[in-house]
Amino acid sequence: SARFNHLKADAHWQGVWESQGTFQARDDSPKPKSYVLEMFPYPSGRIHMGHVRNYTMGDVLARYRRMKGFEVLHPMGWDAFGMPAENAAMEKKVHPGDWTRANIAAMREQLKRIGFALDWSRELATCEPDYYGQEQALFLDLYAAGLVYRKESAVNWDPVDMTVLANEQVIDGRGWRSGALVERRKLNQWFLKITDFADDLLEGLKTLDQWPEKVRTMQENWIGKSQGMRFTFELDTPAGNLTSFDVFTTRPDTLFGASFAAIAADHPIAQALSAGNPALQAFIADCKRTGTAAAEIETAEKKGYDTGLSVVHPLDPDWKLPLFVANFVLMDYGTGAVFGCPAHDQRDLDFARKYALPVKRVVAPSPEEAAAPIGDEAYVGPGRIVNSAFLDGLSVEEAKAAVIARAEAEGWGQGTTVWRLRDWGVSRQRYWGTPIPIIHCEGCGAVPVPHDQLPVVLPEDVAFDIPGNPLDRHPTWKHVDCPSCGEPARRETDTLDTFVDSSWYFIRFASQPSDKPFDRAVAESWMPVGQYIGGVEHAILHLLYARFWTRALERIGRIGVKEPFTGLFTQGMVTHETYKDPAGQWLSPEEVSDGIVVATGAPVTVGRIEKMSKSKKNVVDPGPIVEQYGADAVRWFMLSDSPPERDLEWTESGIEGCWRFVNRLWRITDPAEAAEGEDKDLDRKLHKAIAGIAVDIEALGFNRAVAKVHELANAIEKAQPSASRTAAARTLVRLVAPMVPHLAEEAWARLGEQGLVADAAWPAHDPALLVDDEVTIAVQVNGKLRDTLTAPKGAPKDALERMALESEKIARLLEGAAPRKVIVVPDRLVNIVA
Ligand code: ANZ
Ligand code: ZN
Hints:
Its main location: cytoplasm. The protein is α+β, with helices and mostly antiparallel strands.
């Protein structure tokens, strides 16, 4: 039939793949293995266009690799713990588990409707005890190995909701839900020793040459290795019994530009000075009200309290620097104390301008600028040291080394390596997460839950009508006997950060026995993930935590892999136009037609093209689109036009165009009757497409692959009937199979081919046909035509001469004698004078 019946074909082939287990990955396969993974979704309720784009890319690669003879693991699961389920519980009075599982069921059906080549037999959800129980086992193994510890640490506390807030839940210093001013509170929390691996995580980045440069740089900066110096400032007057304190700097070269010293609000010296000093107490309390997010501290107004004390400059005993307590100095970084150099640090400059402190340049980008004044911007670039006694004329790096050498020789400081990376705090005071498998006993301390008592299962009967952690106020759950001494004890009521759940799910996909987290040998047969695809929003934390967790498992001997993802691709977003009505309210695309509001006829203002988001109402739900146009048209749209790393604008005309093209493919892949004859030009185009599309898919250049399919389709349509044309039309089915698999299966069956196109081999290309323009060269011996050669157009003279002499016929004629002379006319002939 002329039209591709997508409704029938989609359902039919999805059913066939499922019933035949086509995409089930076999652990014991003799084929080489390939692991293709997309970041698993959070089960928010519906699949969105971003998911469709992400999973379509992975799907094309997975299907292509199968055709290339690999045993492919391409699994799917659910990152199912987290806040939104608890929010739904509070707002809609539905249990987080019910909400989550219903969402998973709905989203699973939606994904199946798009025909992804997924191994559903390995599906997992992190909220189920068979997953999180194994995570608890791993957590305890890491605990036993000393990679987990507990310490007191500051959190953002919402005094109205009586809950701890994540940094992103603090907006302008207020709780996102309650609007209350957030306080800093100290709580005992669990930490994972990611800092133990800082050097290795940094070094490992060098091996990840199939990761985007940008992501590697982001990770490098997050780990933040820097060379610095610690040194001691002597106080001119003691603070309580304290007479000195240490500062940490990454810029010892700027020491002659110092104009003040500053300590954190919770520094012991600030604490000592605050006794009997209400003004300082008030200042310290004010500092504590600011959140802990670094970005917040960066943007917050710099404030200080002048202690009236001063410190002695270590390079000049007569030079005194005033000592402040400052809100931008953090207690848990470096030593909680700094020297301020306003000319070369922006925070220090803002601070100095506010408190009228001296600003002295000590680094000059050029000799002419040695005395150039500093305006509103600190100079942080390279240059030569000025105004700095024995350092003058040195470069920044030389001066650092010189100051460190002097400090070490004189005994007031020493060089250090410092990391920006902190240990990973994993405690969350929430219900919907993996319970931390620890029991607190008054006599024994923190006792691990014995392995045979895992999993520690979340209680079902919890209430969300009052704020706080439901686990904490559950009447019975936390009351248990100590596994060690048998006395009454209390369960840990914190749950794990959901980033823990996503730090090893890819290993569990590879192997999921019921009695342990994974089987080492099986997991290693699949790992590492060869191609990981996901959003750039996970470029730092998720990827770093997964790299850490894998290394931690490697260290305790559980797996012989350190880098979990050898290839990484971060895809762009799906965008859409935005619309507003005359009153300035956002309108959804369905409410708009031809520039007017459908319901009222009022004119519409078309706004910017932006990432699809609920808040701007510019979301297009893939569900109905798939029904209307078919899975293949939607998949084709996702791959077309934009390079996959760039944003892709969703348009109605775009999807219509894709639908038309799918129908065109349906017609083209039906070569009517067998025709005779060769069409060299079309052969060449076909083989170029075979080779080129393979290269493009391998490089995730899907839009280029799509363009090549278009070119080939045009060429086939234009060609006269011939055996070449028939072959090209038949081969085209396999070339588009990874992208539009339903159409391809249908066309494959129509051609009378055996089995599934999903199981067919990728067509082979003939390298000889890839040569662009060929010419026929006449080869003469003593003026007589003896042979012809096919050579690339424009081939150089010496190459043609060599080809001619290597020809069998010619060699026979010359009988080993060297030619007297060879005359070459490029692109035409070679005449050998014997
Ligand atoms: C003097 C100086 C001069 C600095 C200069 C910078 C530029 P990164 O690179 O992020 O590691 N610092 C040290 N401890 C701090 C703390 N607890 N809270 C806030 N700031 C702190 O930053 C290191 C620099 O941050 C250190 O180097 C110190 O300021 C500041 F031209 O020392 B610097
Ligand atoms: Zn005990």
